[in-house]
Write a structure and sequence with these properties.
single chain; about 325 residues; alpha+beta; nine-stranded mixed beta sheet; 16 strands
Length: about 325
């Protein structure tokens, strides 16, 4: 199905499903997307399993000041007024430790008979391929990133909006853009029944993404937007090598989490925790800041954040 989102971009979406890259390719000719069906992409690490404990919310300067003014997170007033959606959005925040653990799992899957010590001696490869926006420090959505553990965020949400119970996690949507695959996870209170028709999010590693033991797991299928390298695997001598390749453009995939928010709800966070959780970042292209927000340079953003923190001491 197709629709235009609140930024005026046409997207293809599948409700209640997290469709893998191979599943999406089977939708041809229902999906008109040239990048999705390219068959000349060089070999790369496919189906790499990340276990991510942190999520991040990025905003502009006005959003930053509003978060501290409200002591927490809420929908922007203009979106509440237009009734466009009822969600607070967070992205996975993949750390270097997350990547190292994912690499070890990936190499172990390639060479299951090698010991952990032998696996550790192999040349790092993921750092060459995890180059999409899912792994970048920059963001299209603003200069200020708030980062929390997902477990802590669920606890705060459950305490404030779920009567102390754990919230419900569901498979929300797969959304396909020109060169981007987005998997949406939904979080909501038990007494909100708008989403009862969506399946529960998997706990164990069965599918594209899920939640287990405090971590969001994600089977990343397309870690780069542009491929200039190829992965060579030698099963005979149990080695891996990265070589150069002609540049090829492709789709990339990532995961975001949507917390259901009623109009007027504020997900309150202690001011000290807010201060510790925020940092400045550069704007990446395309810039998706909503007016009247304007992009800042990294130096300008750091200056704004330093002044804000100094005013709160």
């Amino acid at each position: 199905m197709k629709r235009r989102n609140n930024r005026g971009v046409t997207e293809t979406y599948f409700e209640g499903q997290h469709l893998s890259l191979s599943d999406l390719k089977k939708e041809k000719p229902n999906i008109q997307n040239g990048y999705l069906y390219k068959n000349n992409i060089p070999a790369y690490p496919e189906s790499v399993e990340f276990h991510v404990q942190k999520v991040s919310h990025v905003t502009g300067e006005e959003g930053l000041r509003g978060i501290f003014l409200n002591s927490g997170f809420r929908q922007p007033p203009e979106l509440v007024a237009s009734d466009q959606h009822h969600f607070l959005w967070w992205d996975l925040s993949v750390t270097s430790d997350d990547r190292s653990s994912a690499e070890e799992r990936f190499l172990t899957s390639l060479f299951p008979h090698r010991s952990a010590a032998q696996i550790c001696k192999l040349s790092p490869i993921l750092e060459h391929f995890t180059t999409s926006k899912a792994f970048q420090k920059e963001s299209s959505y603003g200069n200020f990133r708030f980062t929390f553990s997902f477990r802590q965020l669920l606890w705060l949400y459950g305490k404030q909006f779920c009567g102390g119970q754990s919230p419900v996690l569901r498979v929300f949507e797969t959304v396909l853009y020109r060169r981007e695959i987005l998997y949406k996870i939904l979080v909501h209170p038990h007494d909100i029944h708008l989403y009862d028709h969506y399946p529960r999010l998997p706990g164990q590693e069965d599918g594209v993404c899920g939640y287990h033991d405090g971590a969001l797991w994600w089977c990343c299928q397309a870690p780069s937007e542009t491929y200039k390298l190829k992965l060579e695997v030698n099963k005979f001598n149990c080695s891996v090598r990265v070589n150069t390749h002609r540049e090829e453009y492709y789709v990339w995939d990532h995961v975001c989490v949507a917390f259901h928010m009623e109009p007027g709800w504020v997900l309150h966070v202690d001011q000290n925790k807010l201060l510790k959780s925020v940092n400045a970042c550069e704007i990446s292209q395309p810039c998706l800041l909503r007016a009247p927000e304007t992009p800042l340079s990294l130096n300008e953003a750091e200056h704004v954040l330093a002044n804000l923190k100094a005013s709160m001491v």
